[in-house]
Design brief:
Blueprint lengths: L7 E9 L3 E8 L5 E7 L6 H11 L10 E7 L2 E7 L6 H6 L6 H20 L12 E6 L2 E6 L4 H7 L27 H17 L8 H10 L10 H10 L11 H16 L2
Antiparallel strand pairs: 1-2, 2-3, 3-5, 4-5, 6-7
């Protein structure tokens, strides 16, 4: 991948999905570590790709992974993004890292702060899941940052189905209306509810192959074990309402519910 016009030296691959590979790279001039996301060109027309990226580079918030620009080499296109050395929420779940309820609520609060900012700019994520929440050291703690804004919407507009992803992928976190090709702020908040449930219990409320997941999201009522603090039951239930209009009206409203739970549980 040597090319004198390519500004980055790729160090290693750090992730791979159905539509992209992610590499850790270093800027040859500044020495800055970045993440390079190599997108499958067959799924993204150049016009669609550039239109969306022009919009997404305007998102600057501590809880959102910043898109720094685009790089081209041969026939490959790379998104240049902030590198977050803490991995993803998916890593914490898969490696069964013990996370306190306080830290879980802190991560959810971070995610909602990022969404609150993006939604105020009329940007809906459409594919929020633990794989798209990166962790970065901050003092003695970690800050959660959302990545891949707009990628799912790009795929949808390009006519690529995202329902066929694996059981740990998008369908597990998709709000009912997403299966009809619709999305809104409430769709992102539904995904946050699934993530909160999974972080607390180590499993999702609905599981199985994509067909089973679709039926469950559309029809199945969730059950919340007694091991989940009671103060959080109402937050999860409201976030996971089948009808968008019955969920939280905004990320700010859901964040107030999370903050109240933190105050009651930990007297913060």
């Amino acid at each position: 991948m040597e090319n004198r016009h390519f500004h980055y030296e790729i160090l290693r691959q750090i992730g791979q999905g159905q539509f992209s590979k992610v590499f850790c790279a270093i800027n040859r001039q500044t020495g800055q570590l970045v993440a390079l996301k190599e997108l499958n060109c067959q799924n993204f027309s150049t016009k669609l790709f550039l239109r969306e990226l022009n919009f997404l580079v305007s998102l600057h918030h501590p809880n959102i992974v910043t898109f720094q620009g685009l790089e081209y080499i041969s026939n490959n296109r790379y998104l240049v993004m902030d590198y977050c050395e803490g991995g993803t929420l998916r890593d914490l779940i898969e490696y069964q890292v013990s996370i306190s309820t306080l830290d879980i609520l802190k991560f959810i609060n971070d995610i909602l702060l990022g969404l609150e900012y993006a939604h105020s700019r009329e940007v809906v994520h459409c594919d929020l899941k633990p794989e798209n929440v990166l962790l970065e050291p901050q003092g003695n703690s970690w800050i959660a940052r959302i990545s891949d804004f707009g990628i799912a919407r790009l795929l949808q507009e390009a006519g690529v189905s995202i329902v066929g992803l694996g059981a740990t992928g998008s369908p597990a976190y998709m709000a009912p209306e997403r299966f009809y090709g619709r999305y809104s702020v409430a769709s992102d908040l539904y995904a946050v509810g699934i993530i909160l449930y999974e972080l607390l219990l180590g499993t999702r409320p609905f599981d199985g192959v994509p067909g089973d997941l679709i039926k469950a999201h559309l029809n199945q009522t969730i059950t919340i074990p007694d091991s989940v603090p009671f103060i959080l039951h109402s937050t999860i239930i409201k976030a996971l309402q089948k009808l968008p209009q019955r969920r939280f009206t905004s990320a700010a409203e859901m964040r107030k519910s999370i903050q109240l739970a933190r105050e009651i549980l930990f007297h913060l």
